[in-house]
What does this fold into?
Amino acid sequence: MNTSAEVESEPAKRRVARAGSSGAGTLPTTPCSVVWSKGHAYVLEGFRGRWVGVDDRGRPQALSGDELQRRGWSRTRAS
It folds into this structure.
């Protein structure tokens, strides 16, 4: 087993995680994935390809992937 390949792959994993958390990466594509935008959680509906969450007043809100990219998003809730 080549240990150098394992060591090299770990920084690559961290880069991917950082890209998603900064909003600069691509949105997840797995159904039921959760991302955060402007303090609200959004869940990917797999069969429709849209992100569903609530607005500031608790009303249901559906966003396309493009809309979510424009708003900014992260994999973790911003404090």
